[in-house]
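In practice, a research group might receive sequence data for several interacting partners and want a quick structural hypothesis before committing to experiments. The following worked case mirrors that situation: the sequences arrive first, and a predicted assembly follows.
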Amino acid sequence: DAGVTQSPTHLIKTRGQQVTLRCSPISGHKSVSWYQQVLGQGPQFIFQYYEKEERGRGNFPDRFSARQFPNYSSELNVNALLLGDSALYLCASSSSPAGWTNTGELFFGEGSRLTVL
Amino acid sequence: AQKVTQAQTEISVVEKEDVTLDCVYETRDTTYYLFWYKQPPSGELVFLIRRNSFDEQNEISGRYSWNFQKSTSSFNFTITASQVVDSAVYFCALVTTQLVFGKGTKLTVNP
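A structural hypothesis for the assembly, expressed as tokens:
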């Protein structure tokens, strides 16, 4: 079975541009969450979706938005990019509505590495 | 507030040595979960273990073992007889209402 897939794997943008990152969860998983990992730091929670509804939101500005589609895939959008948005963006899927508390296991993709110049 | 501290930024050992990665957490919640994840250079986070706050039993899985002590708010991870393939960044994480990661410990196992 395919794991969590993310696209694109690498991308370069300039300040002020907008970016869309995509995530396909493991088949049968209905929960998707997004994390930002700045170089040298641990991942930081951005959003969690379950059954197309937002179930959690981290401490990120409104420039960050996300959505989940009927097939449970998800997109993360970042507007008005700043240099500080340069990071590895990780997507994780889970079969649990809470994303982590019930089964406790999140399956991560390899991430999309965004560089903002 | 929830916080996870991994005081060891980098550790370097020689193959076959035992190594312990420290994790100290802070939370006011009585119900929480603790995790360890491994991040190889490819980037994806690989789940290693989950523990809930009511289960203080230590766990062993092959060369890996975990020591959970609520009295000291610690959840340490030991690799016995380390191998080069263990080289990675290891993250400890805490969940109450959100998943909070520590900053990670980069482990390098040299041949």
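Before designing any experiment, note the following. The longest strand of chain A covers residues 87-94. The two ends of chain A are 37 Å apart (CA to CA).
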